[in-house]
Amino acid sequence: MVYLGLDVGTTGCKAIAFGENGEILAQAYREYPLYAPQTGWLELDAEEVFSAIEESLREVTAKLGGRSPVSIAISSQGEAVVPVDEQGRALARSIVTFDARGDAFVPFFREKVGEKRFFEITGMPLSGIGTANKILWWRENLPQIFEQSRYFLCFEDFVLFRMGVEPAISYSLAGRTMMFDVRKENWSSEILGLIGVDPSRLARPLPSGEMAGEVSASFRERMGWKEKVIAGVGAHDQPCGALGSGVVKAALAMDATGTVECIAPAMNRLLLSEEMRSNNLCCYHHALPGLYTTLVYNFTGGSILRWYRDNFARWEKEEAQRRGQDVYELILSDLPEQPTSLLVLPHFTTTGTPYFDSHSCGVVVGLKLETSQKEFVKALLEGVSLEMKFNLKLLQDAGVVVERLRAIGGGAKSRAWLQLKADVYGMPVESLNVSEAACLGAALLGRKARENIQGLRELVNRLVRVKETFVPRREFQERYQEKFEVYQRIYPALKNVILKGEDKL
Questions:
Q1: 1-23, pLDDT tens digit by residue?
Q2: How far is CA 327 from each of CA 309, 316, 330, 498, rounded to the nearest angstrom?
Q3: CA spacing 20 to 30 A to 212: which of 164, 191, 202, 371?
C-alpha cells in the first residue's frame, strides 16, 4: 500500500509517499512566493499554493512507477485563511500567520470577551495572529469579499475542498483559529457571533485520523491515480510532526529545529491555567486523539546558523562546494567540547514565547580578543538551547511534564548540537530513524482513516524508532545550569536599554 502525507507550509509544500513500514517511496517539494504588499502584510496566493501541491503530487505519482496511493492527509500551517466561493476558488489572497493586520482587533476581543475567558474558551492566549482577526479585517475593510465568501478555510480544509471533499478541519488546526471551543470541540458560538460568521461558512471540525471523505474522480484523474483514495483528517503541522516523531504519550516532547526552534509536548489533559495564559502558552488538540499539546518556541532558532553562514562562513561555503559537502557539517565540525565563556541572547527576530517582543535583539556577552571562531559558533547553539531551557522551565512551572525530547528538523542532523541540548536541558535527547516527521504524521492519519486503525499509538511506536540517545553529562549539565542562572537575567536587564536605544535611533 502507498500512503500520502502532504505538508503545506508558509513558503513551500512537500508531498511524500510512504510504504507500510514507514519507508519513503517517493517525495517532491515545491516553493511558492510569500507576498508583502504593504509593511506588516504577509499573504499567499492560494491558487499558486494549490498549483504547487498538484505539481508535487504529480511528481510523486510519476516516481511511484504506476502505483497509486490509497489515502492522503494534510499537515498544515496554522492560522492562515482563504476566502473561497462555492467551487473553492480563492476570492482574495490568504492572510498568513504573522500578518500584522489582526493586531488591530485584539482590543475588540479584550473588551467583548476578556483575555481570561478568551483563553478558557479557545485555549489560545489572545493575540493578533488568530484566524478570527483576519476574517474581521475582511469584514471591516473589504466587505465585498466578506459577503461573497461561501467559506473561510484554513489550508487543510481548502486543499480537501479542492480535492472534491466537503471541507473538514482537524480539531488540532481548528484550535489555532481562535474560533474553536477547545472544551466542546466545536466552533464557539460566542466568538462567531462577535465576528458575524455563521458556522456553516466554516469547515466541519473532526478528530485527526477520521475519514473526511473520498477524493473526487476528477481530481484522481488529473493526478493519474487509478484507485479510490480516502482523504483523512490531518492536523496542524507541529502536532503532526509530534505524531510522526513518536511523541504519543505524556512526558515526551518533540524538539523541532528548523528556521524556528519549537518544542511540543504530549499532554494527557487540557491545561487552561493562569500560569499557561500569562506566559502565552496555548493548549489545544494533539494529532493523536485523546492527547493535547502546547508550543514553546524561539523564532530565531536554526536561522541563527543561516545568519552565520551567510555573513561569516565564506571559507566553509567554498570548501563545502569543493568537497560536495553540506556547509553546516563544516560549520559545526570541531566545536570545543567545554562550555564557552560567551552568553548569546538569540533574539535576532521576534522573541517567541513567552514575550513576543519584537523590539528585543540579539546580544553577545563576553567577547574577548582570544575568542575563537568555533567558540563563537558553539555559543550561538548554546544561546538557542538556553532560551529553550527557559521555555521548558515555563512548562514545568505550569504543570506540563517533559522528561525526554525527540529531535527532528535540520538541527537533528548534528550530533554535537544534540549532545549540547542534552547537557543544557538536563534530560535525554533522542535522534530518530524518521527524517520527515510532519509528512509521516499526516500519512499515518490518512492510513488510520482508510483502515479504521484503533491502535494508532501502537502503529506509531512500531514505525518510529530511536536511533541514538544523548544523555546529559553531569559535569557539563552542572556548568550549564550555572550559566542558565546568569542567562535568565540578560533579557530583563537589557530590555529597557534596548527599547531606549531604539527610541533614540
A1: 999 999 999 999 999 999 999 99
A2: 8, 6, 5, 33
A3: 191
